[in-house]
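Backbone description:
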Amino acid sequence: MGKERIPVIAIFDVGKTNKKLFLFDEHYQIVFERSARFLETVDEDGFPCENLESLRLSVFDSLHEVFRKAEYEIRAINFTSYGASFVYLDQNGRPLTPLYNYLKDYPAEMQEGLHNAYGGESKFALDTASPSLGNLNSGKQIYRLIKEKPDLFEQIKYALHLPQYLSFLVSGQMYSDMTSIGCHTALWDFTKKDYHQWVIDSGIDKKLAPIVNGKDVFSSTFPGSTYKVGTGLHDSSSALIPYLINFQEPFVLISTGTWCISMNPFNDEPLTKDELDQDCLFYLTYSGTPVKASRLFAGYEHEAQSKRIADHFNVTTARFKHFEINWRIIEGLNLEQTIDAFTLQTFASLDLNQFNTYEEAYHALILCLVNAQVESTKLVLTKQNVKRIFVDGGFSKNHIYMNLLSRRFSDIEIYAASMAQATAVGAALLIHEHWNTLPFPNNIIELRYYRA
């Protein structure tokens, strides 16, 4: 008798830097993982971009590798990846262009022309719940193709966001999903709950594949295989899924990384111009309901300023890893009287000579970071009662950050939430019923409560 094979789901989690493959068992424990980094290539203008061919080959290579492992039975596959990236496919499913980088500059007059044709920048941004971000509004990338390469635009069968392209590689099916359409793409009209008029006027709607619900699955194209293939998800929306499944009371999730994104799935009040100017937007859940979100470039700033402190005091940044909070230092910082004035910008211009130790300087940095975070998160809190704020990602392990945050939000319960690979788990949970025979797990999120 052979050993019982372990039923698993394979999740591809494709970040800008790291590409990962996980196998989860029915208890959502990781039983196998593999990580890769590819060398970037360049587009026709010499601008760095993702190497699509390496990515495609890597998906097939790693799938072949896990299919060879006799101890696992792969029942389903799903995908999650960063947004704002389109793959343009021809009739035969072959990419027509490089995968353009969302950090590439966008022609200002082209963006302006589009805005002005539809009521001006403010109205356009409000209707589409997308701050004006050039290439980060992925819909504008297609618009640019129409203007600069009309012949190529004609050849497009479908433009797929990256998660759906990855899914297509395995299922052979071309579809669009709400989480990708809803992440600052400038494609969706949040009042009309449909594509914005400009998408229809420019003929882009014909190049967007039919929309499916993120819970749907397809059969695989590989002969003889029985596993199901998910539609793929935008990473920020995927990370929210485990929380939505586990908590019914209104909450806000602050997902921390390079960007710290505060997401409130219980707030669908229309965006105001003021909120948009402060980097607020809507995401959409897999079922198409809006999630109000605000973004702060805090992880990036933390890294840059930590390095500045370390260099100044001649230590390594590793020293800051496990600091407990020192309240005496916090009270002693003469930033206290103007506490609200201290933001990320002010810290960057502070003279570090005013601090006696690196510990003091680092406490001051986190104080400034938390101030900025509180302002950012307040933008998505509403009149209705948010009972809890969950913090996941890097800052959830930072005791100074968590303590200061709970002091500032003294009337809300603050939790550091840890879950191995929330983004990947979200993509697995969403199609739970198609591969998992056990009930939904209720213990995959570990919470640590911080008392104000």
The chain has two domains: 6-231, 239-418. Residues 375 and 383 are 16 Å apart (CA to CA). The chain has a mean pLDDT of 92. The first strand starts at residue 6 and ends at 14.
